[in-house]
Amino acid sequence: MKRIIWLGQAGLVFETQFSTVMVDPYLSDSVKEIEPQNYRRIPVDESFFDIKPDILVFTHNPLDHYDPETAKRFLTADSVITVLSPRSVWERVRSFGGNNNYVCFNRHTSWTEKGITFTAVKAEHSDPYAIGVLLDDGSKKYYVTGDTLYNSSIFNSLPKDIYAVFLPINGVGNNMNMTDAARFVEKINPKYAVPIHIGMFDSISPNDFVCDKKVIPEIYKEIEL
Predict the structure, then answer these.
(1) Is pTM beyond 0.70 here?
(2) What is residue 214's DSSP assignment?
(3) Could you count the other beta carbons within 10 Å of the beta carbon of residue 60?
C-alpha cells in the first residue's frame, strides 16, 4: 500500500499505485437522525468527496458503515465503481444503479481487481451477513475486521501472515471491548494493530488499549505503519 488514511469511526482509505479503495466511509451525520445521542463529534472533511474510489467496500448494514447519505456522493450517474458488499447491503446499495458493478460479497468470496485480492471473512455481529475483509496487495495482507465480537470460528478463515489489522475496541453494539480486542490481536499475531470505531460518538481513548502492537490512528491522517 502506498497510503492508508483513517476517515473516523470504521472508515478507511487504502491507496496503491493503481487504485483507491474505501471501506465503510461515514461522512455524514445520519446516525443522529435515528439515535440523537450518537451525534457526530468530528466535523466531516468535505475534501474526501473529491476522491474517486475505484472500489467501495461495505462490511454490513448499520448507518455508520453503509451510509446512503455518504454512498450517494460517490455512486453517481457517471461513476464506475466496483462495490463489494454482503447481501444485507447489496440488496440496498444496488438501487443507485448507474455504471457501477455491485458485487454480492458474502463470506468466503474473493474478488481480485487492480492488483488487490479482496476476501470476505466471518464477523460475529448483529447483522448475520456482516463480514470482515482481507486486502492482499501481493506484498502485504491487511485485515479490516468490521464490527465483530471475539469468536473462535473467525480464525479459521485468516492467514498466518497478516501485516496489519484494523479492529473495533469500543465494546458496545456487538463489538469487542479492549480486553477482547487485545486477545484477538494476540491470537492472529499481526505486525501492527490499529484500533478504530472510536471517537465519533464517544470519548473512548485508544491510549487505554493495552496492546504492544498498536498504532494509534489520527482522523483524516495517514496511518504510519
Answers:
(1) yes
(2) B
(3) 25
